[in-house]
Amino acid sequence: MTNDVSSESYFWDLAEPLLQTSAVTRSTMMGLPCLRVNGLFFASFDRRTDSLLVKLPAARVDELIDSDQGTPFAPAGRRFREWAAITSGRSAIWPALLDEALSFAITQQPDGVNPRPRKAPTRPPHP
User: Distances from the Cα of 84 to the Cαs of 9, 52, 57, 121, in angstroms?
Assistant: First the structure.
């Protein structure tokens, strides 16, 4: 990332090729801009900390934290085990982590299954 490009712009520059697939879409998560694949969140950008947020297996998140490449994502003090925050100072690893997060999200849903099950319609009680 160059100094004349904002971190959020860089996030969207990296996201653009992913958005060319029909399965990846823009969305929001807790008020943050994010990416979904087939309805499942896999990456976001945290404007408050200028960080890429990625969803990965908990062991991989621990590895990123232990190696000081990432920090826990803990909004309101509650840590999300499968989410890591990667600061803009480590933006060189953002492309690989976005690809890794996308691959992880794809493996989290069985083929042909809607990742967001719909609630059964509410019906009035039978008289």
Answer: 20, 8, 10, 36
* Angle between helices 94-107 and 7-19 in degrees, nearest 10: 40
| 33, 107, 111 from 100: Cα distances, Å | 19, 11, 19
- Residue 94: name the closest of 10, 3, 9, 6 by CA: 10
Please tell me the pTM assigned to this model.
Answer: 0.81
Which DSSP category does 21 fall into? S
Among the listed residues 103, 114, 98, 104, the one whose alpha carbon sits nearest the alpha carbon of residue 38: 114
pLDDT in tens, 97-120: 999 999 999 998 766 444 444 343
* H-run or E-run covering 13: helix 7-19
All domains in the chain, ordered by first residue = 7-107 (3.90.1150)
Calculate Rg over the CA atoms of the chain: 17
Q: How many CB atoms lie within 10 A of CB 78?
A: 8
